[in-house]
Amino acid sequence: MAIGDETPDCIVCVDESAVNILTTFHMNGQSYAGLHACKCGIIYSHIKVGNYNDDQFIKYLQGLLNIMNSYPQPHSVLVMDNCSIHNVDGVEELCTEQ
Predict the structure, then answer these.
(1) Cross-referenced InterPro entries, in alphabetical order (predicted)?
(2) Which of 9, 21, 41, 54 could lock 74 by a disulfide, CB 3.0 to 4.6 Å apart?
């Protein structure tokens, strides 16, 4: 599988966000000039107070993987950045099992 081979409906991106008193609510996404922001929506979320630890992230990932589909169906390719929590023990094995 090479980057760019998948259709956009196959891709699920894991992203973290934080909220504080200064955060505002945005109705629109952001994208590069001339491109439209994806409006595919959120397929899974988990809201908690404070930071995730290893076990909490694994539980979040299990919940996400449970609603994802087999390849090559929509929502079947998981994309994560190199955030340190994405590299904890068990993440690669869990993704491979699914």
Answers:
(1) RNaseH_sf (IPR036397)
(2) 9
